[in-house]
Amino acid sequence: MATRRERFDQLQTEMRACRQCLAAGYFVVPPAITKGKLSAKIMTIGQAPGVTEVEALRPFNAGSGRRLFQWLEQAGIDEDWFRRTQYMTAVTKCFPGKNPAGGGDRVPSRTEQLLCRPFLEEELALVRPKLIIPIGRLAIQRYFSPEIPLEELIGTDAEINGVWVVPLPHPSGASRWHQIESNRKRIDKAIKLIAKHYKRLFPEGVKTKKRASA
Ligand code: SF4
User: How many other β-carbons are positioned within 10 Å of the β-carbon of residue 6?
Assistant: First the structure.
């Protein structure tokens, strides 16, 4: 029987090789984009990678990533450290193409979400994060009813099955939600909650390259 480490490595290989959505007739651009360590205490779950993520082979690579890491930096989290030591994944892990109607990338269909779901569940079971940051509605709906508006969720945390969850809105430039003043205040609250959990999980602080070279 495979060890947790062996199964984690196998899972990464299986996700990269997966073509289930293509076989089901959906336009996606593999490979699956995930990044991180089995030992991570914090896991981010996005919606799906964009085209630049596929080119760079890393999650939240471009504009959305810049805004996400601005938020995390405000919570005291160093981007380089986070990318090297924590875990980043998505509800569906292959680029779903542009939305033909405009407004950013295509939202993965319910079928694609279901096809990719076992990967996400196994990532969660193997990594066992202590703090989960679902980013955007699709990821947030893994934890909260779709009937609860984002305005009621962003700026709150919840302990779900022993794991703390702090939702964030999607940081994409195509989204107007995070540009609304009242919602910015909700994001500020969410950032403070992330900072609180980060300090709880890493009370001694962490070794970043900036600190290491200081
Ligand atoms: S999105 Fe998920 S299920 Fe679909 S092809 Fe990519 S890895 Fe497989």
Answer: 10
